[in-house]
Write a structure and sequence with these properties.
CATH class: Alpha Beta
Shape: globular
Number of strands: 5
Number of helices: 6
Order of helices and strands: EHEHEHEHEHH
CATH superfamily: HUPs
Largest sheet: 5 strands, parallel
Oligomer: single chain
CATH topology: Rossmann fold
Helix content: 40-55%
Strand content: 15-25%
Length: 166
């Protein structure tokens, strides 16, 4: 069984993330969405909320693609998470050249730790390349329209979260 791991913070999950998840799920038998517990990023949504949003979106995608998609929180090294879930492939999404420079360094470090796990890069669809969770949150904070960047379910949760935190 080919198992892929797509890690990220997903704060919140965007249409860009969903595009990568959908496409990655066509390449593997099982796709694990690794939700990073990264206190350095101070996410708006707590881990429980991020996992919940991902599970809802991934249940739909799994039904569409026929691939098992599992959400798995992790706080250790990415390569250790890959070992924990039995992944042979790490999937990373790229939007721009700046993403590639960071990801290039990460691949080098991960290969140094375990060269048996491959990293596969998927370019975001052109219509999703500008989407970043950080920007979506900023647009929502300033009462902008986020409907082109997240699903209606995620938009509702994001707007509710911002209303509560203000």
């Amino acid at each position: 069984m080919r198992i892929g791991l797509y890690p990220g913070t997903f704060d919140p999950i965007t249409l860009g993330h969903i595009d990568i998840i959908r496409r990655a799920s066509l390449l593997v038998d099982r796709l694990v969405i690794g939700v990073a517990i990264n206190s350095d990023k101070s996410p708006l949504f707590d881990l429980k909320d991020r996992v919940s949003m991902l599970e809802e979106e991934c249940n739909y995608l799994s039904g569409q693609t026929g691939t098992e998609i599992v959400v798995h929180p992790f706080e250790n090294l990415l390569i250790n998470c890959a070992h924990d879930v039995g992944a042979q492939v790490i999937v990373r999404g790229l939007r721009a050249v700046a993403d590639f420079e960071y990801e290039f360094q990460m691949v080098g470090m991960n290969r140094s730790l375990d060269n048996s796990i491959e990293t596969v890069f998927l370019m975001a669809e052109a219509k999703h390349q500008a989407i970043a969770s950080k920007l979506v949150k900023e647009i929502a904070r300033l009462n902008g329209d986020i409907s082109k960047f997240v699903t209606p379910h995620v938009a509702k949760r994001l707007l509710n979260k911002l209303e509560v935190s203000n």
